[in-house]
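Figure 2 data, in text form.
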Amino acid sequence: ISLDATSATTQANSRPYIRFDAKVDWHERHKFLKFEIPLDIHSDVAYYECAFGWVSRPTHRNTTQEAAKFEVCGHRYADLSEYGYGVALLTESKYGYATTGNVMRISLLRGPTYPDSEQDQGEHQFSWAVLPHKGHFFESDVVKAAYTFNSPLPIRHTSSNSTDSLLHTPPFIVEGAPSVILDTVKRGDDDDFSSSSTDKTVVLRLYEAYGGHSRPKIRIANYLKVSKALITNLLEEEIEEVKLIGSESADGGCSIALSLRGFQVVTVKLCLENTVDGAP
């Protein structure tokens, strides 16, 4: 069990999380291993991550339908919040949650004998964390913290005189919309990956994570020479062209302005000119 001295994200008022690292040699039958934490929080609903958003489920069992929802499938986080404060469970490999009243639980290991009598048997290594946060879930950095918990920042050692542009300026920065997540950065599906090809595209996939309207601006570093920006569908088929806005700063570069509805997924394809030395 560890408590980081640094905050979970760079967002203002971010708190550090309590991390649990477990190594288990599991040989139980008809047993269920869970982690639970009682909280001084009262809310009728809890929030669980799904693809590009969240779902809410009741924390009470007033009806038979609600009683049947004793466990909820979720991705990287579950959150219980009230006005001014909340607590989230973060995980990198466990996806069953339950919240009853003020008690949150996460399912870790099972020992069933049917249909798979060997399910979860053997050695396991996994981690989860408890993240307290200021403000309600919709005002928090839970989504970003869950991302960093699942994909920790790699550390790379280079010489102090390195000319690699990526070491000095990130290629893409999302500004003006804390609820918008840059989920994917990749090469275009239609690119020719041969060494002689000069036509290169970079695809950015963003989504609005909390369910509200937002107007983000994507700032693009000056070492990426973008000739054209396109909005596409998920198959990367062109829908419309987006205006490139020149930067007023000394660093140069450009930016594009977007408008997203709640939970909307947007794919942006950037067409690059011939790259320069130091560019990716």
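Caption note: The two ends are 39 Å apart (CA to CA).
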